[in-house]
Protein: Phage resistance protein
Organism: Nocardia terpenica
Amino acid sequence: MTWLRDLITIPTSVGQSDFVVGAAQGADLDSYVVTAQLRESFSKALQTVEHAVTTGRSQGQFLHGSFGSGKSHFMAVLREILSRNPVLRGYAARPGSVSDLAETVSGADSWLGDRKVLTLTLHMLEADSVEQKILDEYLKYVTENHPDVPIPSVHRADHLIKDAARLREAFGDEQFFARLGSGGGTSGTLTALMNQAEGWTEARYEAAIASPPGSKAHGDVIRALTTAFFAGAVRSYEYVDLDEGLQVITRHASEHLGVDVLVLFLDEFFLWLATGISDHLFVNTEGAKLNKLLESSDAARPIPIVSFVSRQRYLEEFLGPQVGGTEREALAHVMRSVQGRFGEIQLEDTNLPEIVEKRLLRPGTEVVAADEASRAIDVAFASVRDRRDVWDVLLSGAQYGDAGVGSDRATFRRLYPFSPALVATLVALSQAALQRERTAIRVMTELLVDNRDTLQVNDLIGVAALFDKLVLHGELPDRPVLKQQFRTARDTYKQKLRPLLLAMNGITEQQTANHEQFALDDKLVKTLLLDALVPEVPALHNLTATRLHALNFGSITAPVPGYEGHIIVERLTRLANDAGELVVGEGPDPVFSLKLSTVDYDRLLDLVPHNETATGVLQALIREIVCAELGLAGSEGTFGELPYAREWRGRRHHVNVRFGRVRDRDTMPDAMLYADGEAWRLIIDYPFDAHGDRRDDFARIETLQRGSRTLFWLPYFLTDEQMTRIAQLAKINYLLGSGGYGDRLAALAADWSVSDRQQGKVYLQQRQQHLRSTLGESLRQAYGLTKPRESDVVADDLPVLTTLMDGLPLADPHGGTLKAAFDNLTGELLNWSYPGTPHLPDDEKPPTKADLAKVLRYAGLASSDVTQGIAVADGDRKTVARICNPLRLGELVEHRYVLTKTTCWWSSHLRQEAAKLEYHEHFPVHVLRTLLERPARGFDRDLQNLILAVFALEQQLAWYQGEDKVEIQAVQQINDQLILKSPPMPDPQVWDRAVPRAKALFGEPLSEVCIPASLSEFGIVVREKASEFVAAAEELVQELTAHAGVLGLESGTTLGRLSTAGHVARLLRELSSETDDVVIVGMVADADLGAATEIAASKAFIQAEHVITALASVRWQLLESMVQRAEYDERAKVIIEELRITAAHDQISEDLAPALKKAENAAANLLIEETPAPGHPPTAPTGNSAAESADTAAAGAAVSVGASTTADTAASADAAKPVPLQRIPSSQTSSATHTRDVSDLAGAQTVFADLEREIVAGHRVRINWEVLE
């Protein structure tokens, strides 16, 4: 493998001054990279200076760029251009990066000419105020570079010295120095005594006032002057205000130095303001001073000032949420006023990849030529590009707002072996921490140097490497909140996570250097810490194992490519067992995160009473976890057993589960270890025992009797480390639970703040969830599901499963979960217990009653079909196939169910097995039930009954209880007292006659195949139908006979309605009372229906109720009057004859009901037509007396009352005496009064009908009427 240091130049160390901004140095210029964007920025900056020089007006520009964009280096190079640095111009004249500025430099020289530019670089992070820094730097420049030039008077003390000179001239030297030495003539003061002791002479005084401000001599003379003449005036080092100071230094620079323009480079100005962001007065005051650099109340500045102010962030971004709206708006107003006067030169972040490539990662060394080195790096880069899962994650960092370094292949290639994800994280960390000493280039260089002896060409520098540089050993942020977060990250790593990693790997601090597994764990933890500090970086979002591997690509060596994620999940999950700050998500590729807190929430566990981790509590906790894993719900039942229902092969089998220490005879006596009946008993032991070991359990089992269906599940013991975690979980459960005083956590941590308690609760809940999950994995090892790890369980050579049942083969439990293992285990027990075939599939649930009924119905239909098969409806096919096919209980082929001796395996099997027991013609159900379980199949009773019912259908057997035949409609009706045997069957010829007659008579589909099932069905259908209609048929005969005179019916005839009704009634009566199906078949075959056909007879009894209802509603008195009137009235005769013709025919030919209604209406209309007009009594008909009498009776029956005007009521009553209607006696008396106006015949008919109903009902009616017109 090729070392990266052989392909690019990597220094062996990084000095403190290697990245100090000093562009005059040749080495720095030699490595400076000028991009196209930087060239444009230099042109804009130089144009700003040119404009100031040519117009005489001050100018200002913000140099805006994120961390690492090169603001400081930009200002340094600009300074050297303006200063006509010959070294820089020498570099610009020869090939190289700086030569890209040749045209720009040449353009600047054209207007610079002989003009002199004074540049001052102000590192604002060291400033007390804007004026202090500017004036300090100017004085420093003058004293160092022009010692012969007078120092400008920029201190307040300078004015005091000038005033003192005037006093000296007025007083004279003797008096002036005397007063100066005596402290102004006062005595007793310390200053006066010091002045007198030291004395002031002309020589000392002149030397003191000439000394620089801030020196001891200068301070002494100022104190003496203020004490003697100007009490409390100033201190020696105080400057004049900014306006005055700028006027002084620009005049001084112009007059004494010949300067044409003063250029100020204010580096880190906004970071300096941000350090005092909590002091709003300071920020507003100092921020507003930028305006004074451009404008002045004193117009006497002889030369312009050009200010370049570096800005990494807008000041408003530094404000926390605690800053109020008023203060925020005031600051915004100041910044708006400044930004409106300053221009902006944007230094793009996209410069960084090109700069890094040319400055740090340029291919070619003394060992390998540039072209060859570049090809080797291209090959290595391609191997990363081929890993799509890694590639996408490493490029995602470019989406971070202030690290827009690009997200394409070319950008990544320029940064290799760095990634866009690393650079984005680097920028975010540096901005958060406000790093001042480490530029992006410096940090990246340090990473190369640190890994110089280990980096190979295929290695990427992982994101985790930034933690040491910028968090663990970097500067802490100035902002309090961020400072606390970074400090917490340091402390969490050093005091908790790193010790846990050492313990997890079983090494000491001294052994970490060459320990690969520790190095991997350490990188994972550091990456998670970076995520906690700068979660806004896209590359750090949702840190799954896959993403963690990508961000530290090359750090993990997996035995199988692509298995790296599994290794990471295992390592971090194990760490989370003891690191509550580490939160593990769910799923095969869970999201990991670290929750940083200044509070040690683990101290809450110390508040739990000791008895909450006693043996009984831990046993209960393990039992609860295991039960949850096994899927055992509910509390313990009788004697501490947990019943478990396993649905298997169509039956719900029961397994009784009990937890306990097998070795302990006191808590687990022998009786508790033996199974009852055919249900298995599973004894589950605990994975720890303070007073015994697993061999004691096996020794106890050896003393028990064999043959019981008992299975023992004896787990390996957990290690002390795991038992500690069990105890921790018990404590957490206690804290999160409720006691007699309510919330335990609130009660035990009452001295904690509410916020800390709430956060503590969240922490405990997360810890609880993780511990349950990881302990579940440890328990799976203990109970033999997965390979035991030494860190989790204490394995031995004894099995985890053993039994009291001889012959039962046992292997280790298998399954991904305890639930799966439990299901597999119970399945193996049941499979061994019930080896018989055929059977339903293992996972088949018990069939429902509806399922069983459906199968039985299709079996009945198939057995009664001549083809022994039946089409199955689409919605029923799945049910029929699911039950019948695996049981070989008939067969569903495509859409057709076939039931034959071939498809019904049970027919031959049960007959053969019964024959061995001497059962040939009859088969007791209890015997057949026994045969179903030879060998044992584990069928439940309903499924056994279904098999027996289908067997009976296919074999044409009938059900008997004793000598009585029993009809079975549902499998649940089959009991052990029943017997199956062949029943008596009707003569085939009789059967052939009976079936079509029964179909025609009763309208039901009956099988034509003469088998017991069909015979039984025939009997059931015929009996049910006969019983249903016999009462109506008999009542119809009675009603027809009662009105035979009016209807013209004669008894004794063999034709007509009355004859058919009589034959049908007698047949239905006989059929409904017969219990022998064979007899019923004969009765139907030979039934006497008179002259009626089967269809006519069927119609007669089916519509009997309909005809009876019509007969009951007829007004027979009215029809009887028509019979009498028919002797002399042709119209009445027609009415009666039409009715009698219909009544004579069978119902199938003529429906009697409408004929009755028609005749009744016609009779009523006839009588109404003959009612006499008012005042004119009816004329008696001529003829014989009988006719006259009938006519009079009919008229009386129709009218029933006389009608007259008021004038001749009596005469009319005498003239007509109608025959009254036959009244029905009634005890009721009606006093209702009705008045109606009638103007037509229809209205009168309605009145007559109402009167008739009243009279028939037995009421006396008084009638009066009046003719209105």
In short: Residues 1012-1042 form the longest helix (31 residues). The chain has six domains: 26-128+264-346, 155-238, 351-598, 604-814, 834-981, 1015-1169.
